[in-house]
Each structure stands twice: as structure tokens, then as C-alpha cells.
Amino acid sequence: MLSRTALVINRRIISTTTVNSQKISSRSLHISHRINSTIITRHSTLKLTRYSPILSSSFVRCLSTDDSSQKTESLGAILQTAKPPVEGAPQIPTNNIVENVTPEVITTTNIVESIPPGADVLPVIPEVPVAPPVPPPEALETLSVLAEPTLKSLGLGSWWPSGIIQQLFELVHVNLGVPWWGTIIIGTICVRTLMFPLIILSQKNAANMHNTMPGMQKIQQKITDARVSGDQLGIARETKRLMDYMKLHNCNPVKAMIVPMCQAPVFLSFFLALRGMAKLPVDSMKTGGLFWFENLTVPDPYYLLPVITAGTLALTIKLGMDTPQVNSMGWMKYVVNAVPIFILPFMINFPAALTFYWTITNLYGMGQVFLLKIPAVREYFKIQTRLVHPPDALMKPKKFKEGFKESWTNMKLAREMTAREQIDVVQFNKAGRGPLQKTYSYNPVQEHLKKTQVMAKKS
User: What are the coiled-coil residue ranges (predicted)?
Assistant: First the structure.
């Protein structure tokens, strides 16, 4: 550090001189000791007094030539042109300037002509900055763990619904310092809590439909009988009666589909967001798991999460959490109950982040249903109590084969009725716009005209 400072000082001095002639062949080092005090006192206003130990042994790098017999001018010539010392400035005694120490130096003449009297030879040297402290190893490990790239730099976090969810995940994970498994739980709970009013609406509608089920089943049976017999007027009359009955009791099967229709895009957005993060993958998710599934970017090696997800989904369907009661769905209840078994082979290959999210969703949803089964909570949200109907009041549930056969028959009848209605419309339009069709073998009008014409000719 001392040598570098001295080199900078002497380079500034030599840069202000005029060199007449020199032939460069090699460089040699000239050492000068105890520079004349004039060079120091001249710049005492620049506060260089505290660098006196540095200037007491400085180094001057000069240029020399091999084919010149001239000598290098003494450094004293440079110092003689300096300004006189300033009064009151501290002076350092300097003598015995040693020049041309190296034997291979061949000097040149007229290196320095003069130094302008008003020129500033040395600029202000700033203070040496204090070196920052070295962080401890624990801090370095923490920085290496937290210094992860943003999702936008990885191509994620767009403004699509899945990208917005990824941004929210990153916000919770980075700002709150929550691991990824905790971030998934927080995001799931927040979204399911926002959808809780829809769950309440679905439970109200399900309770109303359960209490009015006997009357609805009787009207639906009459509609089926009218459809089998082809009585269009009877079908219209009973359908109008069923609509009035449901309006009177404030129940509608369409309301039961509000929660699934709203939950489907939310679930799909979470699914795509987590799958994109796991497929990339995000490096921090490799250690952001819990228990046996520490790596959230790969499937569960023990297949426990897919099994738990399928089990909680089956229990959710059994409770009729977000849909109408399964027992009132006929043969479709068998298909709905078999859904967890059908999707289990696919869930085995899902990343642990997806199955973990699905499990948390099912568990939190079941918790909401159990909460709404408490009488005090149902009374607070004005949900009707489910009535216990006698066995004779309800139709006996049909088996899968019988229910499927009846549904297939109803579909065929409905298709035939629709085709018959279309044929009637075509014939009606043709009769009103097309020519008259002959539907009889004897036309009395034409026969009467013929007889009249014959009698007129005879007369």
C-alpha cells in the first residue's frame, strides 16, 4: 500500500514535465530517500503531513535507454523548481537523495525542463476506506439459502390466474419466511375461507331439498309416466307443477352446482400453478416439504399422499359436502363414489406439491362441513334442520343396473319425443306454405262442375 501511494505521487510529478528525447529499451527502478521538504511543504494545504512516513521512502520509476551515453538529470532539478515552503507548515528534513541505483540504467538528458509554478503536482488523496467486516459462516449459509431467483426470472408469475397464484405464493414465501409446505397451507385456507359463503348457500339448498324430497319424487314420477305414454300435455303440466313446488320451498337443483362450478376454476388454477413450479423446478421446493415428502417437485416415494388424498376425497363425497346428497342422485351415486378409485393411478405420478394441496383442500372442506353440522352454527346461519322421513315417504333407491336401465329408457323416450316434435313442426310449416295435398279419391266439387257444363252444352 505504501509503495503504491509513493508511485502515484511521483508519477504525478513526472507527468508535468517535458521530455525532449528518449529511446526506450528497458525500465529500471530508481530509489530516492528523503525527498526535499519543499515538495511536502508546498502542498501542506492538501493535508499530506500524515503521509510523511510514506514519502520518507518513496519509489520513482524512470525510463532509460541502452544506446544513449547521456545521464539522467538529477531529481534535485525537479525539486529545485518547486515552490518555497509555506510558513507554519511542518517540514521534514530530507537529504542524500539516492539516484540511479541500478547499474544497467543508461540515462537521458533534458528529461525535465521545468515544472510550472502554479501547477498542482499532487491531487487530494482520499482517505483509505475501512474494509467491511467479514460475515460469519452462519450468515453466509443463510444468504446462500435465501438468495434464490424470483419466479419472474424463471418464466413464472404471469398475469394468468395460475401466474397470479404463483406470485401470491412467492409473496408469502419470501416476505413471511414461510417454507413451501406452509405457504401451500396458508394459500389453501385463505381461498377456502373466501368461498365459505358459497358453502353456506349450498348447505341451505341441500337442507331444503332433503326436507321437500317426498313431494318432489311424486311429481317426478308423474312426469316419467307421462313421458312413457307420450302425453305432451301431461309432461308440461307436471313440469310446471314441479317448478312451482320448488319455488315455494326455495330449493333448486341448479343451486347445488354453484360451489362445484366456482371451485373448479380455482382448483385448476392452483393445480397449474403448483405443477409449473414443480416441473421447472423451483430449487427451494426441493427442500420445502414436510416429514417424508421433503422434495415437493417429485412424486411421493411411499405413495402415502395419493392414498390420503383419495381417501379424503371419498369421505368428502360421502358427506355430500359441496354437492347434493349422494343418495338422491340415483345410479349416478355409484359413479361419483368410484371417482377416487379412478383417479388414484394418476395421482401417484403427481408431484408431492399437488397431492399435498389436494389433501389440505379436502381436510379443510370437511372441517367446514363438520362445523356446519353443529346446531348452534346452523341456527346462526339460518340453515334448516334435516327432517327424518319415514321409509314409506321416499322411493326406494334402485340398484345400479335398474337405475341405469331406467335412465337409458328415459333418454330414448326423450329423444323420440324430440324427433316427433320436429316432424310435427315440419309438416305444419309445409301445410301452411306448400300446395294442397290430395287426401281423397272423390272430389264432389269437380264432379258437380262437370255435370253442369254438360247440361249447359245440351241446352
Answer: none
Please, what is the Cα angle at 173 between 167 and 174, to 5 degrees? 90
How is the chain split among helix, strand and coil, in percent rounded to 5? 60, 5, 35
Residue 95: burial class (beta carbons within 10 Å; 0-12, 13-18, 19+): exposed
How many residues would you count in the chain?
459
End-to-end alpha-carbon separation of the chain, Å? 151
Instruction: Phi first, then psi: give them for residue 232, nearest 5 degrees.
Output: -70, -40
Question: CA 191, CA 270: separation in Å to the nearest integer?
Answer: 10
Amino acid at 126: P
Closest of 347, 326, 349, 342 to residue 397, by C-alpha: 326
In the block, cell 499532487 appears at: 122
- Among residues 175, 143, 140, 124, the alpha carbon closest in space to that of 9 is found at 124
Give the distance, in angstroms, between the CA of residue 401 and the centroid of all CA atoms in the same chain. Answer: 46
CB atoms within 10 A of CB 133: 6
If we measure between CA atoms, which residue out of 215, 219, 206, 217 comes closest to residue 254?
A: 206
This prediction's pTM: 0.58
> Tens place of pLDDT for every residue, the chain, 459 residues?
455 565 556 565 555 543 433 433 333 334 343 444 444 444 444 444 444 444 444 433 343 444 444 444 444 444 444 445 545 544 444 444 444 444 444 444 444 455 555 555 556 677 777 777 776 766 555 554 556 778 888 888 888 999 999 999 999 998 888 999 999 999 999 999 999 998 898 888 888 888 888 888 889 888 888 887 878 888 889 999 999 998 888 888 788 788 888 888 999 999 999 999 999 888 889 988 888 999 999 999 899 999 999 999 988 888 764 444 555 566 677 778 888 899 999 999 999 999 999 999 999 988 988 898 899 999 999 988 888 888 777 777 667 677 777 778 878 877 887 888 888 888 888 888 877 777 777 777 676 666 777 777 776
Q: Which parts of 230-331 fold into alpha helices (H)?
A: 232-248, 258-279, 304-319
DSSP 159: S
E strand residue ranges, 194-295: none
DSSP state of 434: S
